[in-house]
């Protein structure tokens, strides 16, 4: 058994993780976001955990603090009269916010258990070729920095014994050149699956701050799960109105334009990024597109469907479309995708995100197939 303090700490972390899981939907819908730390972990605020405190018994039971005297009287040994405290009493309880540090794996496990997510079976055979070296063998030559002292003296002992020169009463050993042994590295080549996530978002005037906050929250948890499934992951960001461009993460969530919408501009850029950088036989490719469903014309929608069917979908593990409800959006693009591919298409997943309360269900839509 481990130290009692370590056992208590383990039980506390189990309680914390259970608390996060139980309130995960509320946590996500309120826009709470774990804060990444430099060590790779995440800081999670837990405002609803009460800290332990002593409780006093009934006054009639006696005990400390009982006896004669009035409030403010000095206790024995103190000089002068007691003075009442200054100022007014506060109302309500203080904020018992507690920051808990969890690893990526712990957070991903909480999400996976709550949504019953299956582990992803990678599609790509290889993406990164890595060479690892382990000093697990012995060689007769090598640099002094890899000299194996114990093995060298063992060889010297064997030599002295075989020659009859070893004196147990005077065990003096001087290794010769032929006795020296050196650590030697064995190399192994491994192929690691990796993934790329390509986020596309409509930033035209109909997509407001609330819709972007939904996309930001959902993409965080999607990334968290995919990072737990792949050792290496790249993330690319595309914004579009009538034209599309690749941007960084900060620009992706803060840009807002007032122009019209041509969804095909984003799909063309996504197609180009995949063709130029990611071989589908080696990479697991996840394109996500978020919009309120408006598109400029039926001709552009027809072009979008052609690009998806002939290029993006065949190259991807799965293509995901999230339609964020907006008072200005018609929602027509969801209908067009559904008419073309159907709700049960193997390689395309459609999800309607009515509000922040629907984020968790949308994540399950996208990740629930384990593709």
* Beta-strand residue fraction: 15-25%
Q: Helical proportion?
A: 25-40%
Q: What would CATH call the homologous superfamily of the largest domain?
A: von Willebrand factor, type A domain
Report the average pLDDT across residues: 80
- Main sheet attributes: strand count, strand direction, barrel closure: 6 strands, mixed
Tell me the name of the CATH class of the largest domain. Alpha Beta
Strand order of the largest sheet: 8-7-6-9-10-11
Any idea of the CATH topology of the largest domain? Rossmann fold
Radius of gyration: 32 Å
What's the architecture of the largest domain, going by CATH? 3-Layer(aba) Sandwich
Question: Please, could you describe this protein's structure?
Answer:
By secondary structure, the protein is α/β, with parallel strands linked by helices. It folds into three domains: 1-49 and 96-116, no CATH class; 128-190, no CATH class; 194-367, von Willebrand factor, type A domain (Rossmann fold), CATH 3.40.50.410. The chain contains ten helices and eleven strands. A six-stranded mixed beta sheet has the order 8-7-6-9-10-11, sandwiched between helices. The chain has a three-stranded antiparallel beta sheet with strand order 1-2-3. Strand 7 (232-240) and strand 8 form a beta hairpin. Helix 1 (4-22) packs across helix 3 (104-115) and helix 3 (104-115) crosses helix 5 (209-229). The two termini are 41 Å apart.
């Amino acid at each position: 058994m481990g130290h009692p303090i370590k056992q208590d700490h383990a039980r506390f972390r189990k309680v914390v993780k259970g608390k996060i899981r139980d309130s995960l939907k509320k946590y996500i819908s309120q826009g709470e976001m774990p804060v990444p730390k430099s060590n790779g972990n995440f800081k999670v605020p837990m405002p609803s955990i009460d800290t332990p405190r002593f409780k006093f018994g009934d006054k009639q039971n006696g005990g400390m603090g009982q006896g004669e005297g009035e409030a403010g009287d000095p206790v024995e040994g103190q000089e002068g009269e007691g003075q009442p405290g200054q100022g007014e009493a506060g109302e309500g309880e203080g904020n018992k916010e507690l920051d808990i540090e969890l690893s990526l794996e712990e957070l991903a496990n909480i999400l996976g258990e709550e949504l019953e997510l299956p582990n992803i079976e990678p599609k790509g055979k290889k993406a990164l070729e890595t060479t690892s070296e382990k000093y697990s063998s012995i060689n007769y030559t090598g640099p002094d920095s890899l000299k194996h002292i114990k093995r060298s003296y063992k060889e010297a002992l064997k030599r002295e014994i075989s020659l009859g020169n070893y004196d147990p009463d005077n065990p003096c050993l001087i290794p010769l050149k032929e006795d020296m042994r050196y650590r030697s590295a064995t190399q192994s080549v491994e192929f690691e699956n990796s993934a790329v996530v390509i986020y596309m978002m409509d930033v035209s005037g109909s997509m407001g701050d609330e819709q972007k906050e939904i996309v930001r929250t959902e993409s965080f948890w999607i990334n968290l799960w995919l990072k737990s499934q792949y050792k290496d992951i790249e993330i690319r960001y595309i914004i579009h109105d009538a034209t599309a461009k690749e941007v960084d993460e900060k620009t992706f969530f803060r840009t807002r334009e007032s122009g019209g919408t041509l969804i095909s501009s984003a799909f063309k850029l996504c197609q180009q990024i995949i063709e130029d950088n990611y071989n589908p036989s080696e990479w697991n490719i996840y394109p996500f597109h978020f919009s309120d469903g408006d598109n400029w014309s039926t001709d552009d929608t027809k072009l979008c469907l052609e690009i998806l069917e002939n290029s993006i979908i065949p190259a991807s593990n799965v293509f995901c479309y999230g339609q964020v409800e907006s008072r200005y959006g018609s929602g027509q693009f969801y209908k067009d995708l559904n008419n073309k591919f159907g709700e049960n298409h193997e390689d395309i997943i459609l999800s309607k995100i009515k509000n922040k309360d629907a984020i968790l269900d949308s994540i399950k839509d996208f990740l629930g197939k384990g593709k």
